[in-house]
Write a structure and sequence with these properties.
This protein is of the alpha/beta class. It has three domains: 43 residues, no CATH class; 244 residues, Aspartate Aminotransferase, domain 2, CATH 3.40.640; 97 residues, Aspartate Aminotransferase, domain 1 (Alpha-Beta Complex), CATH 3.90.1150.10. Helices cover 38% and strands 18% of the residues. A hairpin with a 5-residue loop joins β2 and β3. The radius of gyration is 21 Å and the shape is globular. It starts with a helix and ends with a helix. Bound molecules: pyridoxal-5'-phosphate. Pyridoxal-5'-phosphate (PLP) binds next to α5.
Length: 400
Amino acid sequence: MTSSQLMEREAQLLCPTYARYPLAVAWAEGMDLYTPEGERYTDLLSGIAVCALGHCHPEVTAAICAQAGTVVHVSNLLYHEAQLVLAEKLLATAPGMERAFFCNSGAEANEGAIKLARRFMREVRGQDRFRIITLAGSFHGRTLATLTATGQDKVKIGFGPLPEGFTTVPFGDADALAAAMDEHTAAVLVEPIQGEGGVRPLPADYAAAMQRLCRERGVLLICDEIQTGMGRTGHFWAYQGLGLTPDIITIAKGIAGGLPMGAVLTTAQIAQGFPAGSHGTTFGGNALVSRVAATVLDIIERDGLVARAARLGTWLKERLQAVAQKHPGRIQEVRGAGLMVGIELTTPGKAVWQELLARRYLVNLTQETVLRLLPPLIVDESHLEGFCTALEEALAATSA
Ligand SMILES: *Cc1c(COP(=O)(O)O)cnc(C)c1O
């Protein structure tokens, strides 16, 4: 099918949930996406931080094939080794975390974390704590509980009645957070760097106050590392860059090289909130996806991709500051950490984004004014330099 045939047929076949970019992909390799017509695009979005090793990494492909010919799925009624191998490797990246639960997506990981926090409070601590506090501008998923947790009204329209027990507080306001905590508060759920919300890092002093308040008030701290995790920010987990000590972390997106997977990590004590039969999933952590995720982790470590993300991110930010200086009045701020970068424009960015796409660079536009870059961790300076040149051209092409 040609690109235009694909775009026409979709409306007859699929629910219209996605406002898709005008780009169809027939195959992909490394940093590149190819249209059915054979045009090449440089992918600086990685399927929204999912394909951390780029597309069709040969070792990931080999792991998929090998496991597909061994055992794909046996359900969580049976023991299988791949899940344990993965859990061991994953827990080693997050000192203090002692138990893993595997699921299939980010929303499901957050849903699991919310359930775990509530059940731990009630059944293990014997306290009637259920309320979950989240921040304005946050994004935590699309299930009923996680869209209620999300601090953006647009994801909630038409879906009520919403579950009870969620409070959203203003971003960066420690007093508001303190005021929102009471004897029914179970947890604060927070992205160390808001992704969907426009690449907004938690200010360091606010993060420290959040940690202190959670400790003092007996409230769990849940870090949503779904977008920030797996080395992207130059730390394996972004909370490590902020000096936080979460009680629970949630993971998805980049964990399994493009296969759907989510995970919840926590301490042995809190994991008592999930006794046998209390929570579960049919597909979660099946042999195929676990094997592939373990391979992804091995490669990130072997190839030093976390330190590389830090180094390239510093380089890119400096380069983008230079672009901002050359085009005064166009770029409000360059934010982020490592290879999670937001370029906030001074005006809505659709036209700039379109000019970048026309120059065959794929990035995301979030919150209307923020160009978001989430490139594969295998990106190199040449791709980023090419992007900066394209960005300068796009800014020039759209100047008033
Ligand atoms: C993408 C994302 C989610 C939701 O993940 P899904 O796999 O789409 O359910 C939750 N939290 C954050 C921070 C995300 O970026």
